[in-house]
Amino acid sequence: MQVMFVDDESRVLSGIERALMIFDAEWECRFANSGHEALEMLNEVPADVVVSDMRMPFMDGAELLTQVRNRWPGTIRIILSGYSEPDATLRMLDVAHRFVSKPCDSTVLLTMVSSALALRDMFQDPAVVNIVGRISRLPAAPKVFNEVCRLIADPGSDTRQIAEVLGSDPALSAKIMQLANSAYFSRGHHIHDIGNAITHLGLEQVKLLVLASNIFSEAGTDPYIDQLQRRALLASTLAARISGHLGVESTAALLAHIALLIPEMREPEYAATKTRGNTPLYAAVGAYLLALWGLPMDIVEAVADHAHPALLTDNKFGVTGTVHIAVALANNVVPDADYLEHTGVLHQLPAWQEMLAHTQENLDE
Fold first, then answer.
1. What is the C-alpha to C-alpha distance for residues 26 and 151, in angstroms, rounded to an integer?
2. Rounded-to-integer distance, Cα 131 and Cα 134, Å
3. Are 40 and 46 in contact, with CB atoms under 8 Å apart?
4. Which SS3 state, helix, strand or coil, does residue 281 take?
5. Which intervals hold domain Response regulatory (predicted)?
6. What is the DSSP letter of 280?
C-alpha cells in the first residue's frame, strides 16, 4: 500500500516516521514538505492514502486534496488541521474523507490510516472505489433543505426542530454525522443519530455549515430525490418503532439507499450489479462512502448487509434484521421470509406491516 504524508513542518513528518518504525505496517510511505512536491511524487506513483496538513504556504491541504480527488479519485484523503475557522472547515468537509485535529498523536493517526485501508479492502471492487472516490457531496431533497434554512434563519426555532428536519434527509444527515464523528470534533465518541450529532457539534456550528456553505445548497431538482427522501424517512421511522428507540437502526435505515442519490448508480448497468462478495453494488457503495466519512461501523455494516441479511453467519435478528425489514417494507419489497423464519421473527411480520401503515398515515398528516 502506498501512503503519503504531507506537511510543511519537518518535525511533524519526522515524528510520523519515528512512529512508523514501531507501528509495523507493510506500507510504502513517502513524505512531502509541500503540496507541489506531493503532486510531483504522486504523478510518478499514485497513493492509496494521502494525509495532508491543512495550513501550508502556497498550496493548502484542501487545495491539494481537491487535485488528488480530481486526478486519483480512488485515493483516501485525510486532513490534519489545528484551527477551526468556518471557511476552512467547509473547505475540508468538501474534499476530505476524514478530519483530524492537530496536534495529533502519530500512533492515533497511523491507526486511522490502517482502518481506512482495511475498509477499502472490504469493498475492494474497482467500481466501488472509483465511484465513491469522486463523491464529496450528495443532493438534499429541495423541500427539506428549504425548511432547514427557514428554521435556521428563525431565531425562535430550537435544536429539536432543526434536528428533526435534518434527520429526515439522508444527504444532510450523513454530512452532519461525518463531521460529528470526525476525530476533529468527536474526541473519540461515536455518534449514532442526528440529534446527538447536532448537540455534539453545537447549533451554531451546524448553522454555519448550512447557511455559509454550498455543500448543502445544491439541493436536487430531480423528483427522484424527493421520493427517495420520503421512503428513507418512512424506513427510518419504522425502524425506530420496531427497535423501540432512535439510534443505529433508524440511522442505518435512513441511509440504506444513500448511494442512489448518485445518478450513475440508478443507471441500468449498475442497478442489478453485485460486488464480488455478492452485495448489491448500491449497498456496497453506500456502505463504503459512509465508512470513508467516518460513520460508526455498526451503521456501515447494517447498510452493507441490509439487502441480503441471510448472507450473515450470525443467526440473530439484531440491527441488520431491523433495517432489512424497515427498508423492504418502506420500498414495497417483499422481505426475506426464509431469513425471518430462520431468526425466529417471521410471526411478527403482520404486526410490522400494520405498523408500516400507521407510520405512513402519521407521516402523511
1. 50
2. 6
3. no
4. helix
5. 2-117
6. B
Burial tier of 42 (Cβ tally within 10 Å: 0-12, 13-18, 19+): buried
What is the number of H-type helices and E-type strands within the chain? 19, 5
Q: Are 56 and 8 in contact (CB under 8 A)?
A: yes
Calculate Rg over the CA atoms of the chain. 21
What cell does 351 get? 404486526
Residue pair 60/34 in contact (Cβ under 8 Å)? The answer is: no
> What's the longest Cα–Cα distance across the chain?
64
Measured distance between the N- and C-terminal CA atoms of the chain, rounded to whole angstroms: 53
* Class for the domain spanning 223-364: mainly alpha
Joined grid coordinates for residue 73: 479519485
Strand extents, DSSP E, 197-345: none
pTM above 0.70?
yes
The full set of domain ranges for the chain reads 2-122, 142-212, 223-364
**Among 164, 333, 336, CA closest to 250:** 164
Q: How far is CA 359 from CA 32, 118, 364, in A?
A: 55, 38, 9
Residue for grid cell 478530519? 99
- In the numeric block, the cell 494521502 is attached to 50
DSSP state of 256: T
Alpha-carbon distance values, 35 to 7, 61, 206, 269 (Å): 8, 7, 30, 38
Contact 27, 4 (CB under 8 A): no
Q: Quick count: other Cβ atoms within 10 Å of Cβ 237?
A: 23
Q: Domain spanning 2-122 has what CATH number?
A: 3.40.50.2300
Q: How distant, in Å, are the alpha carbons of 15, 209, 331 from that of 206?
A: 34, 5, 31
Q: In this structure, what is the dihedral angle of CA atoms 119, 124, 129, 130, given to the nearest 10 degrees?
A: 170
pLDDT in tens, 225-256: 889 999 999 999 999 999 988 889 999 999 99
- Give CA–CA dist 201/291, Å, rounded: 20
In terms of Cα–Cα distance, which of 90, 34, 97 is closest to 69? 97
Q: What is the pLDDT of residues 98-129, one digit of tens each?
A: 877 777 778 878 887 887 777 666 655 676 67
Instruction: Compute the distance between CA of residue 305 and CA of residue 167 in angstroms, rounded to an integer.
Output: 22
Banded model confidence at residue 155, pLDDT cuts 50, 70, 90: confident
Question: For residue 305, what is its C-alpha cell?
Answer: 448487509
